[in-house]
Amino acid sequence: METIGQILRNKRQTLGLLLRQVSAYVDIDQAILSKIERNERKPTKEMLDKLAEILKLDKDELLIQFISDKIAYEIVDEDCASKVLKVAEKKIKYLKSHPIQN
Amino acid sequence: METIGQILRNKRQTLGLLLRQVSAYVDIDQAILSKIERNERKPTKEMLDKLAEILKLDKDELLIQFISDKIAYEIVDEDCASKVLKVAEKKIKYLKSHPIQN
DNA sequence: TTGTTACTTGACAATAAGTGTCAAATATAG
DNA sequence: CTATATTTGACACTTATTGTCAAGTAACAA
């Protein structure tokens, strides 16, 4: 089970790219990319898109990993975590089928 | 499908309690409670516990509603929302079975 | 009308959280 | 040792979130 940071780092190294090269393409400081790869900072969606491009990763898949990472860390310490996910799913379905309100 | 705010407001009114009374018990400004009930602000866990007490709601159930609300609103706009939840669940199971790292 | 009660709203300051930049500190390899 | 790659931490800056407060609306009674 890889974190988003691990995915990015692994793929970058597989492709033989340097932090400097990738960060230049994404147009961020390489310190930031270093932190993203170690899950110390979170990428924005723009960064994710650019990263997916240069690292030849599937954009949607990367986004899914990113968001699910965030959620997982948000609730992993709750002992009701799996119940939370079930209820959240119901709420989302409800919200999607009742698009106007709020 | 009720939001956390609706749950709190409904139960308070059922019990015939005033914002003033409940907010005094929870030890917060009644403006804050008003906003919580309209989902304009999020309660802390301490507030939730106190609210569950005075409103005779199940503490764990309330927490689940609270967190799932947060998550639902976080990802409802993603069209990959349900995939996200599935991946998140896997990640949580993984994290719980590998407790030491990070 | 006038007054009272319950609730809502918005402005405000204080605090916390997140951001990018940079230079110095560590590796890692040649 | 030297050079290159990466990490770290301090810093200033912006953005979010917070509690407090006073003024606002709305409903109703006197």
Automatic annotation (TrEMBL), chains A, B:
Domain annotation HTH cro/C1-type: ranges: 8-62
InterPro entries: Cro/C1-type_HTH, Lambda_DNA-bd_dom_sf
UniProt source species: Cellulophaga baltica
Protein's name in the database: Helix-turn-helix domain-containing protein
CDD domains (UniProt xref): HTH_XRE
Any one GO molecular-function label of the UniProt entry: DNA binding
Pfam family, one: HTH_3
